[in-house]
Amino acid sequence: MSSASAAAVAMTSTTSDDAGSPSVPAAMTTPITTDSPTVTSVPTPAAAPTGGQTFSILPKIINGGIAGIIGVTCVFPLDLVKTRLQNQRVGPNGERMYNSMLDCFKKTYRAEGYFGMYRGSAVNILLITPEKAIKLAANDYFRHRLTTKDGKLPVHREMVAGGSAGLCQIVITTPMELLKIQLQSAGQQAASASKEGAAAAKKMSAMSITKELLRTKGIFGLYKGTSATMLRDVSFSVVYFPLFANLNSMGPRKSPGSTEAVFWWSFIAGCASGSISAAVVNPADVVKTRLQLLNKGASEQSYSGIRDAFVKIFQQEGPSAFFKGALCRMIVIAPLFGIAQMVYYFGIAEYFMGMDKANTATTSVALPAAKSQSSRS
User: Fold this and answer.
1) To pair with 15 at 20 to 30 A between CA atoms, which of 230, 269, 303, 307?
2) Half-sphere exposure in the Cβ direction for 227 (13 Å, CA)
3) Among 126, 113, 131, which Cα is nearest to 207's?
4) What is the pLDDT of residue 297?
C-alpha cells in the first residue's frame, strides 16, 4: 500500500554587496514526492552561485594599494603642511614661523621647491599598500565575527570592529609615520636653524634614519610613539567605520533593488566620515606628532609620554594647541578616504585580473547568519 510523503529541501544562499551591506538569507522550500513510508530531510548540494558573491583578498590588496598611492599623491603636500603647523612653537613674543596654511605653503615652496612639498612621500607610498590591506581585511574579519546570530551588527559592535582594525594596522603605520614626520620636518628645522644662525643639519633620507634607529635602538626604535599612534588610529577607526557604513547606506543605489551605492555617494560618504573622524582625533594626532619628532630644536619641548605631552601642551600652549592643523588634517583625510572608496568601486584590480567584480565582494565561507561589511578606509 503506497502513501505520498513530502520531504522539504532547504536551500539557503547568502548575498552581499561590495559596499559591505548585510548578507540576506533567502530560504526556498521545494516539496519532493516519494513512495517511501519514511519522511526524511534530503540535503541538496550547493550549486555554483549564479548571482552570489565570493571573497577574494588579492583584488582588495591591489585596490587598496592603488587607492593609497593615488590618495597620498593628491593630498601629501597638505599633510606636510599639517605636520609643520603642528610642530611649530610660538615664541615668547608671539612670533611664529608660519601664520597660516597658505603662509606655510608659500614659504615651503619658496625654500624647497615643488619636490620639497613631497618630502617623505616615498616611504608613505611604499608602506600604504600593506597598511590599507591590513585595515580592510581586519575590519571585514571583525565585522563577521561580531555579527549577531540574527544577522545584525549593532553600532557598538561596529565600533569595536573598527577599533580592532585600527589596532591591527599600527604595526605598519607607526614606523611609516615616524619616518614621514622626520622627513617632513627636516625643511622646517633647516629654516629654523638658518634663522638662528646655526649650522644646517645634513640632509636626511628614510634609509639613513632607519639605519641609525636600527643601529642605536634596534627594531623597537622604529616603533617610537606606538602608544600615541594606537590612541589616534584606534580612535579614528572607532568613529570612521560605523559612520561611513551608515552614511553609505543612506545614498542612492546603483540600480533598483541593488544594495550597492553609486560611486559618487561613496565618495561623499568617505569624505564626510573621514573629515569628521579626523577632527575628533586631532588632539591625539598632535601628541603623536610631537612624540615622534626625533631631532628637536634647542627651544623645543621634550615629552616623556602621552600623559606628559597632554599636560605640558595644555599648560604651555592652551587647549587650542590640540587643534593645530585640524583644518588641514580634515582637508587631507577627506579626499584620501573619498578617493579610496571610489577606487574600490571602480574595481581596477578585478578588471585587469579578468574577474567579475559583482561576484568578488564577500567571503564564500561566511559565518552562519553573519553579514559581511567591507567599509573601507
Assistant:
1) 269
2) 8
3) 126
4) 59
Rounded mean pLDDT for each run of 10 residues along the chain, 377 residues in total? 42 40 43 44 39 59 76 83 80 78 88 84 77 77 86 90 91 85 71 55 74 87 88 93 90 82 88 94 90 69 88 90 86 84 74 70 37 43
Chain-centroid distance of CA 78 in Å reads 17
Distance CA 189, CA 254 (A): 50
Three-state DSSP class for 7? Answer: strand
Distances (CA, A) of 284 to 161, 225, 321: 20, 11, 11
Domain 57-359 CATH class label: mainly alpha
Residue 39 near residue 72 (C-beta atoms within 8 A): no
Residue 320 CB coordination number (10 Å): 8
In this predicted structure, what is the pLDDT of residue 361? 44
Report strand pairing: 26-34 vs 5-13.
antiparallel
- Cβ atoms of 72 and 127 within 8 Å: the answer is no
Q: Please state the domain extents for the chain.
A: 57-359
**In the structure grid, which three cell numbers stand for residue 187, read together?**
625643511
Residue 193 has what pLDDT? 56
Backbone angles phi, psi at 4, to 5 degrees: -90, 135
Residue 219's contacts (CB-CB under 8 Å, 6 or more residues apart) are none
H-only helix segments in the chain:
57-87, 101-116, 121-146, 155-195, 206-217, 226-248, 263-280, 282-292, 306-317, 326-346, 348-352
